[in-house]
Amino acid sequence: MGPYFGYNTNFIADPYAYTSPVGFFEPNGYGLYDMAGNVFEWCWDWYGTPYGQPSATNPTGPGTGSTRVLRGGCWGNYAIYLRCAGRAIGNPAGGTGAFGFRCVRGP
């Protein structure tokens, strides 16, 4: 399998793997595309503990901080980390090819 074991071979430009185009894979059961595994998605929440305050229904984390929550994993992670419930941290002043964002529209 070579050095690309685990990567989708459609998205390799020797010697690097890279992100797939938006919507390349089928949507999940909610009709949402690219929710895990393409790029980490920046969240509005500051990273910190305890998490789930003030509500367990829509937790927001602390009111201030220096790092933001990232979710979803990225193309460079093992499959076990590619889930929306997993949290990572990122400095909002920086970025990489593994970080992105999702534009959403309210009702």
Structure description:
With 107 residues, this protein is mainly β. 0% of the residues lie in helices and 20% in strands. The protein contains no helices and six strands. It has strands at residues 12-13, 16-17, 40-46, 68-71, 87-90, 99-100. The strands form two sheets. Strands 5-4-3-6 form a four-stranded mixed beta sheet, with no helix packed on it. Strands 1-2 form a two-stranded antiparallel sheet. A hairpin with a 2-residue loop joins strand 1 (12-13) and strand 2. It is globular, with a radius of gyration of 15 Å. The model has no long low-confidence stretch (mean pLDDT 77).
Draw up the topology in text.
Layout: E1 12-13, E2 16-17, E3 40-46, E4 68-71, E5 87-90, E6 99-100
Parallel strand pairs: 3-6
Antiparallel strand pairs: 1-2, 3-4, 4-5
The proportion of strand residues reads 15-25%
State the secondary-structure class. Answer: mainly beta
User: If helices are DSSP runs of H or I spanning 4 or more residues, what is the number of helices?
Assistant: 0
Low-pLDDT parts are: none
Tell me the radius of gyration: 15 Å
Largest sheet: 4 strands, mixed
Number of distinct beta strands: 6
Please tell me the overall pLDDT. Answer: 77
How far apart the termini lie comes to 46 Å
Helix content: under 10%
- Shape summary: globular
Name the helix and strand elements from N-terminus to C-terminus, one letter apiece: EEEEEE
Sheet with most strands: strand arrangement: 5-4-3-6
